[in-house]
Design brief:
The structure is a homodimer.
Chain A (H helix, E strand, L loop, with lengths): L1 E6 L3 H14 L3 E13 L3 E13 L5 E4 L8 E3 L4 E7 L2 E8 L4 E16 L7 E4 L2 H10 L9 E9 L2 E8 L5 E6 L6 H17 L4 E7 L4 H9 L3 E4 L21
Parallel strand pairs in A: 12-13, 13-14
Antiparallel strand pairs in A: 1-8, 2-3, 2-8, 3-4, 4-5, 6-7, 7-8, 10-11, 11-12
Helix pairs in contact in A: 3-4
Chain B binds a DNA duplex through strand 5, helix 3 and helix 4.
Chain lengths: 254, 254
DNA sequence: ACATGAATATTGGAT
DNA sequence: ATCCAATTTTCATGT
């Protein structure tokens, strides 16, 4: 799986290495080095010289990782072109993208390691517990939201956007249900309000609005009240089995 | 910068390696291996056996990278605890987080390489062209939005959220300005509308609403019109010099 | 290609 | 600790 490694390469060797393995297009290339990183495109940024881990994947995506955080310090998805050259005695990689136009330039000031990794394409990935699943479950069991609720539509498109669940309650009133998989904020309230207003504009029937989520923030609940809308608590996920046997922790956070 | 490397380790050696270097807490640890990955928490997911690059940073963040895309296949930010053990003859790493409660479990079915990288903390990172910068610039030069505009407040908190710029125009009317660094969508229009309504509720003075962004989507512009709000085009970034000399591209996208 | 909305969003700042 | 809004959000999807 490890195609090649280069320890403490000089600039020329690093350029050759990158040239060869990036060109092949069938492996992931990594460089650990003191770098200077420049980004220009949708925004512009400069990283002062520092230690970074640079990863270039087969699709041309580039990410520059610092010592913490999941998110890279600097990145670029699916670049169209990658150039490598020596500039002022330093190996430099430049990755460009056309739409939108942007560019990352990494200068490898003091490369410690370069390696090429052959990652075979991997199997399927299964995800459960998304908003889509929650919507499906609630559409099948609307009584969880309110007894007597009858679902008319899922993902009903309107002028102002898609209504997650459109239903009729036991009293015959129309009900707009907005689902949030996680704690609902003011944005969700406003989204719901938008939909309810939209329905009211096209119908003279009474219309209720229900925000269904595992939790709400206090300001959001406030605003719901003042707008005459309702909140209904629904659990986001089926129970998580969480009592596996423990070993002593390896990691002590700073 | 490269503290240690282990090629094709057996499960026991890998566990020892991970134990040692994760415990040290001052280096980034990587494993290239055929893996099986399980996530359970805010959602639940399973990755079938496949080749992945696993990265554990000093802050306990875990990311499992596949062969393409900037985004990891599976990840977890800032875990509280990491455990390593042999289960059924396979080295397994389990990273847990308490708030919210979630867990990633990686089984290293066939490890090709494990390495520990000492990344020194890096220098400052400067970002230009963010919304904060744009706000600052426009607060200093409000005439770019409209001649005669006088800024009263920046980031004015209201009941329904913070107003980016609150101003008075040449005719004495109040002006709510919503800034977007990128193309403005309907969401931005509703945000602006929310703020304008909020101000009108507390003041009988005439109130205008201006959406300032480098571009708008057509539906958003439509809705602006129907709500009696305005759009003003402002460039998000200072000019980007883009005519550096080119070399032949190394990367040909599939 | 463009617009829209979800995401295990993540992250930083304010309260 | 909680809440809130920006993000080079990325990403999938519908039109």
């Amino acid at each position: 799986m490890i195609r090649a490694q280069l320890h403490r390469p000089d600039p020329a060797a690093l350029v050759d290495f990158l040239d060869e393995h990036l060109r092949s297009g069938d492996c992931l290339v990594q460089v650990v080095s003191e770098c200077e990183v420049l980004y220009s495109g949708r925004a512009a940024s400069v990283a002062e010289a520092g230690d970074y881990l640079v990863i270039v994947k087969q699709d041309g995506s580039v990410q520059v990782h610092g010592h913490r955080s999941v998110k890279p310090v600097n990145w670029q998805p699916q670049t169209d072109d990658i150039f490598v050259a020596i500039e002022d005695g330093v190996a430099v990689m430049r990755a460009e993208r056309f739409q939108p136009s942007e560019m990352v330039r990494v200068a490898f000031l003091e490369p410690a390691l370069a390696q090429a990794v052959g990652l075979r394409e991997s199997g399927m990935f299964v995800l459960m517990g998304s908003e889509a699943e929650m919507q499906q479950a609630l559409a099948r069991h609307p009584e969880v939201i309110e007894p007597g609720l009858e679902v008319l539509h899922r993902e009903l498109p309107t002028e102002v956007g898609g209504i997650d669940l459109f239903a009729r309650d036991a009293d015959g009133a129309l009900v707009v249900v907005e689902l949030k998989r996680s704690k609902a904020t003011q944005e969700a309230v406003h989204q719901l309000s938008r939909y309810v207003d939209g329905v009211r504009r096209t119908s003279s029937e009474p219309v209720r609005g229900i925000l269904a989520a595992p939790a709400v923030t206090a300001p959001a609940l406030n605003q719901l009240g003042s707008l005459g809308l309702e909140f209904r608590e629904v659990s986001a996920l089926p129970g998580i089995d969480d009592d596996a046997d423990r070993q002593p922790s390896l990691f002590a956070p700073v």
